[in-house]
Fold this sequence. Notes:
The protein is mostly helical. The protein has helices spanning about 10-40, 50-65, 70-75, 85-120, 130-145, 175-210, 215-255, 260-275, 280, 285-290, 290-315.
Amino acid sequence: MNKTACPRVSFDFTGRFLPPVYILVFIVGLIANGWGLKSLLHDWKKLKIINVFVLNLGLTDVLYLLTLPFLVVYYFMGSKWIFGETFCKITRFCFNVNQYGSIGFLTCISVYRYLAIVHPVKVIGRLTFTRSVMISVMVWLLVSVQSLPDMFFTKTHRNNTEKCFVTTHNDHVEDYLKYTLGWTLTGFCIPFLITLGCYGHVAVVLWTWKRNDKVLKQRSLKLMFILILLFSVCYIPYHVFRNLNLWSRVLTKQGICYKWYNGVYIARQISRVLVCLNSALNPLVYLHAHEDVPAQLRQKLQKVRQMLNHQFLSNPSRRPSAPTVDEL
Length: 328
C-alpha cells in the first residue's frame, strides 16, 4: 500500500477495445431485434402473455442500440464528446434503461414460466394480457425511477464537454458509489435471486415430471439455460467490476493505492462489453419464449431449401457444386 502518489491508470485500452465491439453489436443487434420484433408483431391479435414481456425486452434493446453510433464517434475521436452534456446524459440513461429493463423483463419471463409450469391450475384466468401490459408499464416506470438519479450526477468536465462519463466525475465519486450499491441491490441482485429461485424450482418439477411432453421440457430448460447465461455473462461481471472500480477511485482520491487498480479498470471495460452484448443475445429469448418464432424460422429455411432445389433442378450442369442448406 502506498499513501503518496498513485500510479496512473491506463485509459488507452478503452478507445481501442470498445468501438469495434459497439459496431458489431449495433449491426447484429439491430438485425436480430428487428427480425424478432417483426415476428412478434406479425399477428398482433395472437400476441400471448409472455410475448408482451419479450416485445418489451426487444424495445429496450432497440432503445440502446440507437445510441451506439454516437458512442462509436465519441471513442473514435479520442474520447471527445461533441454532442453536448444533455445528450450525454440521455445516452447514459438509455444504457441504464436497457440494462435494468432487460433484467426486469427477463425476470418477468422467468416468473411467468414458473407459474405456468409449477402452478398451472392456480393461475388460470389470472394471467391475462391486460395484466401483463400493466406489469410491463410498472417495469418501465421502476427502471426509469432507478435510473433517473444518475442523470443528476456530473457527466462531463466543468465548462468542458469533451468527456462523457459512464459514472461521474471524481468530485462526486463517493456519493455515486453509495447510489450504485443500492442500485445494484434493487436492480440486479433481487431480480437475479428471483430468477434463480423460479428456474431452480422449474428444473426440479420438470425433472420429476411424469408427463411425456418432451417439447415443453426442452423449450423450458433451454430458456432457463439462456436466461442464466445472460445473467452470468452479461450482468454479474458488470456489477462486480463497476462497484470495484468506483471503490478504487474513492481510495485513490484518499491517497490509498493498490497495484490491482489498473487490472480492475481493464476488467471494468471488458464487463461493459459483456453487458453491451445483451442487446445482441436477447433475441435468443425469442426462439424459446415465443412459440411462433421458431416456426417462422423453419418456414424461411424451408423456402431457402425449395429455392435451392429449384435452381438445382433447372440447371443440371451446376448440380455437382450446388450447396445444401446445411452448408449455408
